[in-house]
Design goal:
The complex is a heterodimer.
Chain A: E1 3-7, H1 14-25, E2 30-33, E3 45-48, H2 70-78, E4 82-86, H3 88-95, E5 102-104, E6 112-120, E7 136-143, E8 147-149, H4 152-160, E9 164-169, E10 188-192, E11 198-201, H5 219-231
Parallel strand pairs in A: 1-2, 1-3, 3-4, 4-11
Antiparallel strand pairs in A: 5-8, 6-7, 6-9, 9-10, 10-11
Chain B: H1 10-15, H2 20-30, H3 36-46, H4 48-51, H5 56-59, E1 69-71, E2 78-83, E3 86-94, H6 96-101, H7 103-120, E4 124-134, H8 142-160, E5 164-171, E6 180-190, E7 205-210, H9 220-223, H10 244-259, E8 263-268, H11 273-285, E9 288-292, H12 305-310, E10 316-321, H13 326-335, E11 339-347, E12 351-356, E13 359-365, H14 366-371, H15 400-408, H16 417-420, E14 431-433, E15 440-443, E16 450-456, H17 459-464, H18 466-483, E17 487-496, H19 503-522, E18 527-533, E19 537-538, E20 541-542, E21 546-555, E22 572-576, H20 587-593, H21 605-620, E23 626-629, H22 634-644, E24 650-652, H23 661-666, E25 673-677, H24 682-692, E26 696-702, E27 706-708, E28 715-716, H25 717-732
Helix pairs in contact in B: 7-8, 7-10, 8-10, 10-13, 15-25, 18-19, 18-21, 21-24
The chains are: A alpha/beta, B alpha+beta.
Chain lengths: 232, 736
Amino acid sequence: MKSAVIVFPGSNREGDVARAIALISGDRPEMVWHADTSLPAGTDLVVLPGGFSYGDYLRCGAIAARAPIMRAVREHAERGGLVLGICNGFQILCEAGLLPGVLMRNARLKFMCREVFLRIERSDTPWTRRYNAGDVIKVPVAHGEGNYEADEETIARLEGDGRVLFRYTSPEGELDPEWNYNGARNAIAGILSEKRNVLGLMPHPENHVDPVVGPVDGRGFFESIAATLKAA
Amino acid sequence: MLPNEPKITPELVAEHGLKPDEYERFRALIGREPSFTELGIVSAMWNEHCSYKSSKVHLRTLPTKAPWVIQGPGENAGVIDIGDGLACVFKMESHNHPSFIEPYQGAATGVGGILRDVFTMGARPIACLNALRFGSPDHPKTRRLVAGVVAGIGGYGNSFGVPTVGGAVGFHSRYDGNILVNAMAVGIAETDKIFYAAATGVGRPVVYLGSKTGRDGIHGATMASAEFGDDSEEKRPTVQVGDPFSEKLLLEACLEIMRKGCVIAIQDMGAAGLTCSAVEMGAKGDLGITLDLNAVPTREEGMSAYEMMLSESQERMLMVLKPEKEKEAEAIFRKWGLDFAIVGETTDSKRFLVRHGGDVMADLPIKELGDEAPEYRRPFAEPKKLPVLDPASIPSPLPIFAALEKLLGSPDLCSKRWVWQQYDHLILGNTVQRPGGDAAIVRIGDGPKALAMTTDVTPRYCEADPFEGGKQAVAEAWRNLTAVGARPLAVTDNLNFGNPERPEIMGQFVYCVRGIAEACRALDFPVVSGNVSLYNETNGRAILPTPTIGGVGLLDDLAKSVNPAFKKADEAILLVGEFGAWLGQSAWLATVFGREEGAPPPVDLAMEKRTGDLVRSLIGERLLTTVHDLSDGGLLVAIAEMAMASGIGAALDAPPPGFPSHAFWFGEDQARYVVTAAAADLPRIETAAAQAGVKLRHLGRTGGSQLTLPGENPILVSTLQARFESWLPEYMGSPA
């Protein structure tokens, strides 16, 4: 599988996701500089990694969404190519208009780094085929602005089209405000584009893939992507 | 006198923190009246913070050598060899004064400064730790300071992209007017690619890199070298503003030009900014430095030479580059969007020459600026020894488990989850032991090696007996590292004290340093870097003596590390070390009675070493399933922490005859660990302990969901957890 991880000034989890992809697929991603204007030939998967692009001194992701490389990313998405935005990458996808909605400041007004439980809403996507719908996985979050919000119409459309892929739940998979730490609307942790080839999520499955450092609930996520691209 | 410069008066000299005799010494050195800029420069170089003038003579007594030490104190950070061609570069530094005045930026720039110290040497930072001391929870400023400092540390480290993996948080009324923010950074470099400050070669360009210079932080180091009065809030303009985004770019750009072999010498601009970095480069390299301030990138119009030389604007570096690589280095910096300017050159004159707008603003002997700084042997008073408390003389007003609940719910011993959850402790994907254990464990590359790291000190012990307290701080850091299975390698020390001009404070300092030196020698645990912060005092009231010890150790195979969480039911719970009953200066005495009395527990360093070496070798042989070192709160707090970390309870035996129950369970005798093991492994463990001459005692068995003790009402582990987790969120008024 051929993947490209976009590096913006201030990205900082690009190494984590590249390592997870290499660990699980066996193929090391190309690191692509934000100022480049094209993706490596034959790229299957584009990853916008976590971090604080441009310091996040404006709205998170707002400047990165206008970086030179983003035109190529947009074209890749339009061709149906896979685009994954994790954390700051999710924020960038929203700012770039590739996904709807915004990520607001966490309801508790603090940065938080902790494990959360995610319910996988469906398994018939390129991203989750190695899980079953309803599975609950434990992965970390690390963000100050992950409180997903959109207007009523957008939420209704996302929900109606089954485009909410991950939700914050209790360990048993129950929706409960106690377990929705950042206060996201409908406990939304990750959403898909209409064609389901673009995914944005706040949590970091890439940090839960290695048994030496913790749980491995995030492996299925990268295994799913690898399986999707192998099948294609 | 230069145009537009103020006249040098005794008042102006005093405002710069120079004593009249220090000023005279400087005048004699240069043979004339200094210019205003020169006065600024010397005040920056000769203040306590930069010159260590009160502490140097004592710091020299610390052991700093071992076969694995590559670089001891005196550089930006200490460097130790960890095998496989790799070195660990680490240091701890205080940002106390600025954090009290402006907690978010003070703490943030503390983190930024220490990270810069580490990557200046060519290392990529892999972890941060910190040690924080706040005033009494009842003090009106405490809550705001906790919120600001924690947010500032997180704000910088999270954005920069290094995990904050460990630390300590404590509260005491003696920090009401002077909080402590000690930040530690740990990095990894290749042993043959370590960079130093000493410039070489004459006529080489001196290059300024990073962010632009502004008016922030002027006199920061001078401020940090004086006591506070009631007007401390007015010093806010001396606090710098952090920009972790620029620092991240600076890191990547610096490592890139180092990789490409462009760098001869490098020094970050920390305290006293351009002045200190330029003088260090010249003085260490036996060269002169000429600076042309017109070339310095500035953020504001019309900055004077004085302001530029004293600005502590963050995220800046000074380098001497290989002339043939200059263009390549410039291209790399431009790529990262950072300023790159040639601001001077090296000379053979050994003068520090500063030009601005055609005028010579300063012309000073560079070696003497550093080496001829005053050095004091300040008078010190020998600390008074306190009597040893007889445990039988202290009544126990509470049932054992009620006292345990109270301890676990106290500000010092409660869970610090509210704090560390605001720090990204997982980024880079190598955090093996997360916050909450005895020491953090961070994998090196893809393993199997890992570094263990910790910060520790018990200030109330240091106050009661500076010598024993200094020993104990080192011993406890060593014990923390041992408890996860690591071989302790070296120390960075951050010595926080009050006003050294008072003999009793100087006495605390001198005796703490003697204790640290003795323990480091006995445990083969050299000091390789550090920082001294004096004048932590407001209106004549000093902090508790707080020599924070940052320790680093090595695990050859992280698969063999252990943590404090009970693993399963029906395992034996053992005490490695002696039974004890030492209640003097214990957390129990302070929490249950509000009393801080008596002599603190003495540290028998030979026993410490024997016991720790045994525990480490048992971990290496995989005979121990759980290990926790004993510290604040003694045996029962340690056992409760092991239970809470796992949800598994324990059935404990009654104390042995002759030991009052409360003293047995809450005494803080040193050199001890609680461990668990499978029944089948007990004979081997007992044999090893007997051979090592270390006592091994049975305390009970793991299992169930509660702690039980003969004659006491049992208590649910979940009740303890709730108590342990609740104090800080309730105090701060927001969930973790």
